[in-house]
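Morning. Coffee machine broken again, so started the prediction first thing and wrote up yesterday's gels while waiting. Chain of 306 residues, entered below exactly as on the submission form.
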Amino acid sequence: MTLHSDYLRTLERVSQLDKPVMSNQLMGQTKQFLSRRWILEDGYLSTIPVQVLDGEDEADVEVDEKTKTYSYCRLGGLTTIVTRPLAEITIFTINVDAWLDEISTLFCIEPSKVAWRRELIQGHLWHLGDLRVSGSSRFVPLYVSRRSKMCPMEWDQNLRDLERSSHGIVLVTDSKTSTNLPNHHQVRELDALLTDVTNVVTLKSDVLDRMLRGVPADATDDRDRYNELTGVLKLRCMATEKTFTGEYQKSVIALFWRERHQLSLKWSEVRSSTDCGKDPDSVFGKGEWQAWIERVAFGKYRLRVS
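Came back before lunch.
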């Protein structure tokens, strides 16, 4: 796990990014986040809760920055002066832009392709810029998402915005929480694309390249691949590549590709997800689909990947 991923997890844990946070909310990474200016010191608590005989009360604190400590009077009974580390009451503000700058650098976004408007949904969705698809002149958007379930309609609307290209990548902490993305975008956990070797974080360029070209991460070669952007499908059972041009065809193949490890898909599920025709013949032409899709039972189909 990389420090960059820990920071994104921290963003998931805090309720609002414009509210102050304490060290106990920073996953034990306070010093590291501070050194990169991903968080900034913003003063200290002036009072703290303390236990008294009949419950809880507040005590004023006295800060000593020279010794990096604070002290307070323990209330009730005999008055006692308690001294503690100053870090316990230090207030921090989140500096998400500094972290986003580093992510943009790690993903090698070209200067001319850096997003001119980064924050699309305040505190929830950012567009970092566009990534070049290797060996082509095409670019796809790179996003960072946080707590998307808190603003599902606005989130969906922004990912569908025609101002930006389709087939982008959305970086999240947990890919299981965002499986069905609009506009052919792919969701990926940040650690799937970054690696940390002796505290040096680098991009897994080969993994990113395979994603953008439609080659599965678990593939040992390129014999099975599908590129949602170009609509090009190549399976081991096919002598040549097949390029799909219609949106319904591309959507159906994309769904079968994503679910290629399932035993089968019901065509009713395919129709529900893609709004396509009533059967494979109506989508691909009579009998033509059998070159890349096989019927395993009545109304059930799968991609010919084995």
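The chain has a mean pLDDT of 86. Going to sketch it on the whiteboard this afternoon.
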